[in-house]
């Protein structure tokens, strides 16, 4: 019998398919997969389209992930290889709609993309169970390599679930696009990213003083001006200087049960900048934050507030059961400013976005729960995920400038191969019929131990 709550959480993360097994069967048929949430939850992705098998770890060419992404028409991308894909500082662009990338189908160790980022420039895309480790790759400071690990660009109906984003040069995971497309607020909102869900992701160690041409740029998530229907649910941000997340002018975001660890200068932010809105009437932004946890770390500014307001535009804000403490557990302020302007914080008495359909935990339960389930493959984590998540749990780690300060790119090796067998998967949701994923282990992988550590604990060499 599992007597400790954190052990129970780890066990459940291992044996329960990602998402939430609690989702009723009747609801599953109407959603992208069990546990899908937010305005994008009903996107079909590539459901009903052709199944495209990735059979090589090459960055392009026949059988590659890039070739599958570039294929037009509804499609479900599955993997018959597992390992590292080195994109050589070329970002992947998703331009054709109705796509599901099912990273969960890859044999162990799963799929890790290095020296790259992913930009989604279309609609109805489901991206699950991938790792993206961007990194500076030895490039000189301010030399111009500035990739996001993941971003949408004027996209809509997109779900990013159970992914790991590390070492971005710009943001780790964002929703972006033009500010002003058309003549009305409705047209502005339709012309940029909208209806985007980020769930169960790990977004960590954005690189600070690296190759970004603007200089310091360790950023978690940017939600660009007028982006709406943006949902952050059960994500972990760790060791990002700012933007955990940043909602820009007129944006609308819902944050439920996220963990923010070791933000340096700012955690949650809102900023409508006059310099970017010249000639346009301001639009009031909206943030609903329920059951989130912000915990200071080694780099966090003393007295850092949970939410900071900058710029000139007003913000409507609804907050409930959010926990914000420093690294010693002492309470931190809820609200502060980083601009002395006329911008107002307008406190709402009720949520500004629908909160039905979410499993909302009390804030004291969030850290244990999300550390057990966040990231690309909770059932078979890689050394970087284990390092980051254990450091979060232990109150360790720091903001970095270069991936080499903490590790290195994973090695490109011969792929692990296993056929994708359609009969073993629910092709509507891309969940395994058996309830177990490829390379799923029990118990969950723990910290990597040296031979001496294993010997001292009586474990086999």
Question: Summarize this, please?
Answer:
This protein has helices at 5-15, 25-28, 65-70, 185-190, 363-373, 383-394, 451-456; strands at residues 50-54, 75-79, 81-86, 92-94, 99-102, 111-114, 118-120, 123-128, 131-133, 150-153, 156-161, 164-166, 174-176, 194-199, 202-204, 222-223, 228-233, 236-238, 246-248, 252-256, 259-261, 268-272, 285-290, 293-295, 307-311, 315-320, 323-325, 335-337, 345-347, 416-417, 425-426, 431-432.
Word description of this protein:
The protein is built from 7 helices and 32 strands. The protein is α/β, with parallel strands linked by helices. The strands form 5 sheets. It has an 11-stranded parallel β-sheet. Strands 27-24-21-18-15-12-9-6-3-30 form a 10-stranded mixed β-sheet, covered by helices on one side. A hairpin with a 4-residue loop joins strand 31 (425-426) and strand 32. The longest helix has 12 residues, at 383-394. The chain is globular and about 60 Å long. It starts with a helix and ends in a 5-residue tail after the last helix.
Topology, please?
Layout lengths: L4 H11 L9 H4 L21 E5 L10 H6 L4 E5 L1 E6 L5 E3 L4 E4 L8 E4 L3 E3 L2 E6 L2 E3 L16 E4 L2 E6 L2 E3 L7 E3 L8 H6 L3 E6 L2 E3 L17 E2 L4 E6 L2 E3 L7 E3 L3 E5 L2 E3 L6 E5 L12 E6 L2 E3 L11 E5 L3 E6 L2 E3 L9 E3 L7 E3 L15 H11 L9 H12 L21 E2 L7 E2 L4 E2 L18 H6 L5
Parallel strand pairs: 1-2, 2-5, 3-6, 4-7, 5-8, 6-9, 7-10, 8-11, 9-12, 10-13, 11-14, 12-15, 14-17, 15-18, 16-19, 17-20, 18-21, 19-22, 20-23, 21-24, 22-25, 23-26, 24-27, 25-28, 26-29
Antiparallel strand pairs: 3-30, 31-32
Helix pairs in contact: 1-5
